[in-house]
Amino acid sequence: MKQKFRQSGFTIIEILTSITLLAILLMIAVPSIHDTIVKNRLKGAIEQFRADIQYARSESIKTNQPITVSFTTGEQWCYGISTNGGCTCNTGNSCLKSFDNAEFKDISMTTTHFENLNGKSYVTMNPTNIISSEGKIIFSSQKSGSITADLNIVGRIHLCSNDLSSYPDCVN
Question: What is the structure's pLDDT at 1?
């Protein structure tokens, strides 16, 4: 009696169908993954900023002297924290701390209502826990929305966003 051998494996039709389905799933998933990455960068930038503002407040109280946070806004944003107000992104030695957008591609920063000197916005934290001016710092992405940091007169920071559900809505 002759034995029949069954061949195992996949037909070319099955392989092509699987590849097509995988390609369709990837086309759906990749934009969503990119949006999630940008949202996480946006959250990372604002949370780093919040931590640095709290650092500036505590340094002012600890050293009993004013601490200035200077902002350079736009796509290539940065900010620096110093005791003399002369800290910019390019003067690292005069800064207690500085931070830029190197880790936060596609995120821009704008400020409103802060004092302005030579085209740069700044705010000064005083040891009495009163700051020089209230204002807003807005980190935004064209595709993922924005998060606003509202800095009040006593140096407290409130975060809000009308685009990301992990933050309360902004009230104007």
Answer: 60
